[in-house]
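From: lab user (bench 3)
To: helpdesk
Subject: output format question, protein + GN1

Hello, I'm new to running complex predictions and I'm not sure whether the block I got back is the full result or only part of it. Here's what I submitted:
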Amino acid sequence: MSNHVSEAAEQFRPRGKIIDIREYGNGNINNTFLVTLDNGIETNFILQRINTQVFHHPELVMLNMRISTEHMRRRLQTATLIAGRRWEVPRVLSTQEGRDLWLDPDGSFWRAISFIEGSQFFDTIRNIEHAGEAGYALGMFHNLLSDLPPDRLSDTLKGFHITPLYFEHYNEVLAKQEPGKSPGVDHCRQFIRERSAFVNVLENAKAQGKLRLRTIHGDPKVNNIMINIITGQAISIVDLDTVKPGLVHYDIGDCLRSGCNPMGEETEQPEKVYFDLDLCRAILQGYLSIASEFLSISDFEYLYDSIRLLAFELGLRFFTDYLEGNVYFKIRRPEHNIIRALVQFKLTESIESQEKAIRSIIKGLR
Ligand code: GN1
Ligand code: MG
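Helpdesk reply: Thanks, we reran it on our side. This is the complete output you should expect:
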């Protein structure tokens, strides 16, 4: 466990005695812990050490989190959106000095967030109902933030989901050092080469004014969607580090690339990966049931591309990180990032081979 974790937990402890701290979740960037308190009833909170190699301005990350969560909570009080449903917005917890962050003696930043009690997450979608709930959760999130002007938020991660910039960086990494040859490396390089024009699809549409910036989540993968343990309904979407201005297409694409891959993004068997159309339909249905009102015709036109692009982009990011010596994503073995890349590229291929069917699902839901 990281240094200073118990000391950090003490900074945010509202009331009660800390009885347990354990590593929690499967994040690729920050270190996350679940802290359990004994304060009559057992309660938990989430404690995280922010990876400042990735997030250079943790204070702006926290400010974005404050602005967006407060906005969502205000909307929830007036909205008629959730008739009969429970929906929770994670709360930022303060230190005893009233701050959002605690800086430990080694220079690490810590922050704490409320835990959504009575909920659990899954790394893959279990069934059609779960898929619908995942889509609903993202739609709910976009809906609650649809009237928060994106320029109220800072750009806390420059270039995030700007695929042409990832592509440029990939080419720089290649130019610096020719990677050794192996079937995996050769396959990835060719796969990327064949799609070099496609990387611009969303950014071009943005530049042409066809798609506009909104407030987005940035990372709405399946395991960030919290499911009510009893009812199976989605009750929250967590991991708000990347809430910032962006295209909703990044979110929709990311949610689908994550949700429609029944093998999961951490599978060791890339050859078995495929994109599941039934899950795709259910996620989109859940999403559109609450989000279609603010999507334009041209937003719909780019949905297919966003699904294909976000799978491809994540593969490109994993592969680049592999070539660069794993400087961004945490790994558990040396080949981890190239296997992850192969998984996303196989998923991309499966999306491409089902283009017609995916477009017709989208058309049917408009
Ligand atoms: C990272 O740390 P985690 O697991 O929440 C990454 C996402 C990727 C995801 C892939 C800030 O998210 O963009 O989709 O890994 N987050 C950042 O699992 O780069
Ligand atoms: Mg994240």
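A quick orientation on your result: Residues 27-29, 54, 219, 221, 239, 242, 265, 314 surround GN1 (ligand 1) (CB under 6 Å). Let us know if anything else is unclear.
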